[in-house]
Amino acid sequence: MKKxxxxxxxxxxxxxxxxxxxxxxxxxxxxxxxxxxxxxxxSCNPAVGGIGKSHLAKEVDALxxxxxxxxxxxxxxxxxxxxxxxxxxQATRIQTCRDTYKSKMQQAIDAQKxxxxxxxxxxxxxxxxxxxxxxxxxxxxxxxxxxVVLTTGxxxxxxxxxxxxxxxxxxLGDNASNELENFFKKYGFSLGRLKTGTPPRILxxxxxxxxxxxxxxxxxxxxxxxxxxHYGQTPNIISEIxxxxxxxxxxxxxxxxxxxxxxxxxxxxIDSVGPRYCPSIEDKVERFYDxxxxxxxLEPETLSDKEIYPNGLSTCLPEDxxxxxxxxxxxxxxCEITQPGYxxxxxxxxxxxxxxYLETKKIKNLFFAGQINGTTGYEEAxxxxxxxxxxxxxxxxxxxxxxxNRDQAYIGVMVDDLxxxxxTEPYRMFTSRAEHRLRLREDxxxxxLTAIGHKLGxxxxxxxxxxxxxxxxxKAESKRLEEIKILPSSKVSSILEKKFNLKLKNVQTxxxxxxxxxxxxxxxxxxxxxxxxxxxxxxxxxAIQERYExxxxxxxxxxxxxxxxxxxxxxxxIIYNEIKGLSNEAKEKLSEVMPHTLGQASRISGITPAIIxxxxxxxxxxxx
Length: 624
Prior knowledge:
The structure is a single chain. By secondary structure, the protein is of the alpha+beta class. Helix content is 34%, strand content 18%. The chain is built from 19 helices and 22 strands. Strands 1, 2, 6, 7, 8, 9 and 20 form a seven-stranded mixed β-sheet that branches. Strands 14-15-16-17-13-18 form a six-stranded antiparallel β-sheet, with no helix packed on it. The protein has a four-stranded antiparallel β-sheet with strand order 11-10-19-12. The longest helix has 26 residues.
């Protein structure tokens, strides 16, 4: 008889993080997946990070999760997005080799103590007098456990659409999980349907790159994991491959528009909702009809560099139409498709049926994580997975379960949004969702979460020591810079006036210069009085702390003001389309719900604190 403390169903990003985290907590774990060789499969774009998403990924890393470390080891391209903006909205993005990523993930899973991989499909959950006992496999065998984490991704009732072809699948080439869906229907769980999609893959040798813009890695080669970014370790380096940029055009759009009736998205075959922020090319052409072109990133998928992922061209049109519109795009005039794009519909559970620990309210010790909770994206899945895995292990160990609050982590923002508001479309993370985003930066997730992870038993003592060393270095460098004085009459003062148009009137410290928006740590390193330090590698973190100190006080006050305005009534006659500064999304959602108070408006998915502040000012100004 197979018996474990925790069963994790599914070997995707949520499942791998859940299983690995629970095993790190020293409980026995079975990771059940259809095929061992599919563990860590990147079903869509092989990239990790990006705006909002890197914040989630780094929080997983701060809890000693896998996604960032493995992405760093698999990097084909490394970039920092929003580099010209403030640190709170900067984001690291790693384009990975999907083969290397999958291989490294499987190695990590196989090497983890307390973790066993069981191949097969789960068809049922075993309950005895409402107490969870384990699972039944499709071959009739049973695996017993005290807790179960369900991370089935798009496999639960999955159905693929390509033109007029539709068939059951979890992803192209893999079977859907239909029997398990029937169990939850029978047990009264609230299920819905969502969709996502993927673009066609293109044979690289059929692309003409001669006229296309090349985009390589940033010069400083940023990493996602704190192990490689702040703790001095070096990731495995594989050959880097640049991306290229091209654009659709009016001819592309005409072909798509003329064949719209052949798309399952528009002929009634698909009636579920797809991700608003990652629309298909059919949606883009329809919704943004005034645009003459849409940007397309031609991204490598593997070290073998034979296939290209055309990011921005998700579609479920018939394959011949896909080829036709692709060949109107610069550089793709003679391209060949290696795999057609497709849409996939799948079942998800209303996440309002979960506690904040991602445990179901109907069945104790049953946890859900990933796309089955209505989210989209690897990072969102991984973040839920690590929380579910931690809490499954906490349940086994009879210790208090945990989830960060909204002011502690983007993970806390996401989970609170899901379990409080539910979803009407696939949920993805944006920095604008977090009212405390100045505190929840990429650079400090370890300072916020690693010590907590150590107390929960999922972060090693060695990693905690690395964090303490980092904090000690920041404090030491901050103190050193505070002690360096700059006189208005000094040579350094003259340099500052000449280089930065900064005229000192009083004595300043070297540290206080970092409050200036156009002066960074590298700038003060070049000043004569800077002196010597062994902590220059964390100098940029000192600069971020100093520059954000005042902003943090103001944001905290803003959040406090928002809390005071929760009960302000919104007049019935308000017309949201007339309010300048509101995004089209905000106008659409507010007009649909017509909330009675600012508090109710603030709980609508996608309505940010900034929007609430704008509404409050509008109501006061117009005395409605």
